[in-house]
Structure formats: C-alpha cells, structure tokens
Amino acid sequence: MASSYKPSSRSRLKDAGFRRVLPLTLLVLLLVLFLIFLFSNSKISPYYYASAELRQQEERTSSLQVHGRVKLDLNFKPKFPKKTDLSISLEQRNNLPPRNLDLFPNLASDHIKIVLYVHNRPQYLQIAVQSLSKVKGIGETLLIVSHDGYFAEMDKIVQTIRFCQVKQIFAPYSPHLYSNSFPGVSPDDCHDKDNAQKKKCRGNPDQYGNHRSPRIVSLKHHWWWMMNTVWDGLSETDKHIGHILFIEEDHFIFPNAYRNIQLLTQLKPLKCPHCYAANLAPSDVSAKGEGWASLIAEKIGNVGYTFNRTVWRRIHAKAKQFCTFDEYNWDITMWATVYPSFGSHVFSLRGPRRSAAHFGKCGLHQGNNQKSACVDNGQVNMEIEEIDKIPNIQSNWPVHEVKKTGGYQAGFKGWGGWGDERDHELCLSFAYMYHINEASAD
C-alpha cells in the first residue's frame, strides 16, 4: 500500500535551505583540511601566524611597565662623581640622534633593537662589526654601541659603520675617565691587601681581603649603567615595548642571527611562556648546540641574549642585590643572586644550533696596558655553513628543558673585587638616575 504522506511546506523549506548550505559547509571543511595539510608540511607552522596576536598581548603587558612607577628606597640618596670636561662632552654626544638616517630613514615595525657594549679591544670590535655587516635584516633596526669610557680607536671603528642606523653612548662615570679620583684611583685609596686602619687609607676590602681595582669594577659598572640607560634613559628606546638584543665586542654574529632571534621572540610566548629571554647561543660558550630538531630552554647565557621591558623591570627591582653582591662580573652576579631571587627556573629559549659565538681569548679585566696584558691578534677562523646563513629554527619543534646546568648558581659567594661601599653606592645611584629629579654631586 503506497504511503499517502506528503511533506509540509515547512519541511520543504528546511530541505531547500539545507541543500543551499551544504555546498558552503563542504567548501569550508575542505578549506580547513587544506590549511591543516599546508601547515603540517610547511616549515612555518600555524604558531608563526598566531604569534602576531600573542606578541601584541605580550607587548600590551610590557607597555604597562613603560612608564610605570619604579619603587625606590626613599632613604637612599644617590650621589655621582663630579663630572670632568671629558665626561660632560661624552654626555652631550649621548644626546645626538642616530647616524645613517639618510641611508635607513625608517625602522621595521617589528624590529628588535641591538646593543653592542664595548671596552677597549679594537681587534675584537673590528671582527664583531664585520660579522654584523653580513647579518640579514640588520638594516631594519637600530644598533646602539655602549662604550665603557672613551677610547679613540674604538670610536673610530664605530664611526665607519654604514649598514644600519647606529647610535653611540658613553658611560660618563667610567673609572677610565677619572685618573686621580673615584671611581678611578684616588691618592688615598688602599691597594691590594692594605690594612686601612694601619695605613690610614680609604676603601673596604672584598671578602678575600683585596681592595678595589678600577679596571676590574668598570665591567659591572658599565653593564649596569648601560642597562639603566638603554631601558630608561634614551629617547630612541623610551617607547620601545619589544625585545632588545645584547652582544659584546668579542661575539661573532652569524648571518642568520637577526632572523633567528625574531623567530625565537615570537615563539617564546607560545612555546615557552615561562621563559624570560631568548638566546642566540648556548649558556656554555664553548658549545655549538645539540643539533636536535628541538628548541632548548635553559638558563640565560651571556652571548646574544634578549628580553623585554617587563623582564627589565624585574631585574631593576633587584638593584640592591645586584649592587651589593661581592662579585665584579655582571653575569655571575645575575646567575648567583638576581635570577635565583625570582623564585623559579629562569629559562631562556634558543635554537639547537648557535647563531653567535664567543671568540675572545683575552678578558676585559686583563687590560691592554698592563705588564701582564693578554695578547691576542684577534684572528678568528669561524666556520660558517650554508645553514648558518638562513633562518634555521622551525616553529613546530618541541621544547626541551634543561633544568640542571653547570656553572655559577645560587649559593656561590662570588669571586670578590666588589667590596668597596663606594662602588655599591655608585651602582645603586645608576638605578635611580632616570627616576628622580634631584641627585647630589659629591
């Protein structure tokens, strides 16, 4: 018996609507499947495209700190040495605009600023500058060169840079600018293991009984002055809410370094949201990397490290720990007292293959004019392969965390060289200099 059922007009409308929607639904489904296939077979994963939104979120967090109030100890009264004619002229140079604006009038919207901090090793600086000149994307950013005092040959090398915008800043309170007074050597200073009471000399010995050496303490003073100035004292960085990359004069920078650090800072909030920084090289300066198909999260190294303003605010808040820890090296001070005070593993994200390398044989503390000065002709045989010329970090890699690392950590008491209360006071004064209206001159 045939059915006598006939669909209602409402049912017919539903069927017609479904038939119209079905092709669109199938088209959307095919598009989604195509995108999944595309991303799964591409070196650039969906994380790369999503990172722009996450980067904006990170920048919004950072922007809250750009002009945020800094907690200061109201009982501390910052004091600075009386400026010399040379230090005054250097401060005037610090206010000059970047050079090469005619060649590079605009910075890329997503640029990472680079800070190169130098002392007095021209043979090293020449190599570092040559390596930077071959870095892909270097013309998109601003290079800030921070000098520990003034050395004519170093200045001359920087003046030759034509491959990007470049700005020079000079530490006006460097011990190298004061030949007869603090922070240089004062006539009444104690030396070596002098007994201050018996010899009636001035100074506080370190934990090993040694009195200050200006060329030793300049390392830590310069780094701390530079950090405070770059983050809080320059119009060129005042509103910068991205990352800043820090390198030294004895670092060889590979051609892919800038593109790799861009990728790492984009991937950091996705792949390692608890990471504080990104690095171009392993924390072990002698290591070339593991060569794994994996990103590495480990302690922050001192070769090619980058972080943003939010992290700087956390570091700045630890000024007292940094400035009073009896250790003349800034990096060991950070590893042994500042980073551990954050309360958890302070990871930095890097690739499995280095994009920068430490090549110097002579440390800054070994000097250039001493009888026992380290001698190095600055020749470097750095092997650059084709893979070092292009970005070699993939965003679909997993992250391998290295929680147990060697080197200096919490509990290390320091190598000394930083026991004089005058150095503590000057160091702390640097933390205040851009956050107060008045500071006395001694």
UniProtKB/TrEMBL annotation:
Cofactor(s), names only, from the UniProt record: Mn(2+)
Membrane-spanning segments: 21-39
UniProt-annotated binding residues for substrate: D148
Pfam families, sorted: MGAT2
Annotated EC: 2.4.1.143
Keywords per UniProt: Disulfide bond, Glycoprotein, Glycosyltransferase, Golgi apparatus, Manganese, Membrane, Metal-binding, Signal-anchor, Transferase, Transmembrane, Transmembrane helix
Topology term for the membrane: Single-pass type II membrane protein
Catalytic activity: an N(4)-{beta-D-GlcNAc-(1->2)-alpha-D-Man-(1->3)-[alpha-D-Man-(1->6)]-beta-D-Man-(1->4)-beta-D-GlcNAc-(1->4)-beta-D-GlcNAc}-L-asparaginyl-[protein] + UDP-N-acetyl-alpha-D-glucosamine = N(4)-{beta-D-GlcNAc-(1->2)-alpha-D-Man-(1->3)-[beta-D-GlcNAc-(1->2)-alpha-D-Man-(1->6)]-beta-D-Man-(1->4)-beta-D-GlcNAc-(1->4)-beta-D-GlcNAc}-L-asparaginyl-[protein] + UDP + H(+)
Keyword Phosphoprotein belongs to the record: no
Keyword field contains Transferase: yes
GO molecular function, one term: alpha-1,6-mannosylglycoprotein 2-beta-N-acetylglucosaminyltransferase activity
Gene3D superfamilies for this protein: Spore Coat Polysaccharide Biosynthesis Protein SpsA, Chain A (3.90.550.10)
SUPFAM superfamilies: Nucleotide-diphospho-sugar transferases
Record's subcellular location: Golgi apparatus membrane
Family according to the record: Belongs to the glycosyltransferase 16 (GT16) protein family.
Protein's recorded name: Alpha-1,6-mannosyl-glycoprotein 2-beta-N-acetylglucosaminyltransferase
Native organism: Asparagus officinalis
